[in-house]
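Shipment paperwork, digital attachment
Item: protein structure file
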Amino acid sequence: MAGTPIKLGSILSFCIVLYAVYYRKNDIGDVRLSPVKEHLLFLEKENSVGVGKNQPKVALGYGACHDLFVNATALLDYRDLKGPPEHFNEITTKQEFLKSFAYFFKHGAAAERFMSNSELYDELVEQALKLSDTRWAIGGNAPLMAKRFFIEGWKVLLAAKMSNKLKAYIPEEIEIVGGEENEAVKDDIHMILEYKADEQFGAYKSPRANRYIMHNDENNPLLSSLEKLGEHLVKFTPNLLVISGLQMMDNFPFKQNGKDLRAERLDLVKEQILSQPLNTLSHFEMASYVDLELLTHLTTKVLPYVDSVGMNEQELSNLYNVLEYGEVMVVADSNPRVATALDQMRKTFHLIRQKNKEFNSKRKITRIHVHTLAYQAILTVKNSDWKRTEAAAAKASLTAHRYVCNTQKISLDKSKLLLDDSFSTTTDNDNNSRVFFEPTKPVACWDEELDGDKVEICVAPVLICTEAQLTAGAGDNISAAGLVLQVEK
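Attachment content:
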């Protein structure tokens, strides 16, 4: 829906009646599903990625791992839990693990934690491998985003140190840099504890499908592929540089002999971004962070120098709270109102713009993408290098369904919409702007002015997969898909 949000008035009652007649749920299901699907597919088809000389190029860092997917409630026994759910920044014992898992499970919130107890971690991996439905896959933000860019037609350079066994998961056409030739690499293993919507863990029920990630990494926190990526960037000349995987540094024991190795490595990340010409766009992929010192580093060494940030609703709340109040927000609403997310996006945009000025950055934030269970929201500065925001929101929405359902086909019998027939664009009581959801033109776009710039905001509904096959990696695929159509060579 192009144009500005509609002001409430006499048109409101007419619209409510209209939507009640045409777009209410009938006995078969939500009749909005089919027109929403058709128009999202239309937008995707009408906007294709360049080929040949116009094929865009992306370089991504840092790291990779082996993901071990585990049925969470099959591995963990609720009866072993002693006491109420509780949040821990770092996991050292089985009880802390159980309490931490239960804490996020009852909120349906995604989480990622470092387990410093290597012996316990290895025991849990052994137990998980005894379960019949446990499976292996490649993991890490950079490899998963790299595969998505490749699938969608981009030329890809991936920075990650991995074994030949792990490289076998990556298409041969993707150039991998990071390790030395014939170097023996021990891959880090991440345990992905998955659960479905309405699943029970003792007295607790999950409000939505999600995952809890546990790791005991040795390679990834050190960003061991950073220097190799730097060597190849000059020749590769990417149109887009993606910075991801920095959450592996969360609560990792870096300080040695009074030296903060983490700050040094992040300074090198900053230098790598600054080494790129301004016409190479840079994107930072946010993740689940709880270490305030690390988050503070990100607000001074990464965020002031990137053009774009991508994140889910939990990560948005956390980033906003760190920028505004200097505090970590561990868990947030797993299905926030559109108005709430948009307000946080606007405030986050403003706060990062302040960082741009504070650090005299030659780059300014010009794009924010927030992906939630119910919708995609993309904010871009008009007349910036980011193109086709409406189509990008549609592409991200379709990718959310396809990835979680693990199929290319959009099946209406496996879809549902959570977006209402209309939504407010802000929680500000003095501003009664409202957007009406049109199933035949479901991506709502309008212009606003923020920090002296005209911006375009697009919100696309997600055809939520009701039979989730995959949860971990969804955000990486959705974020990459959102970027795919926004960069033109």
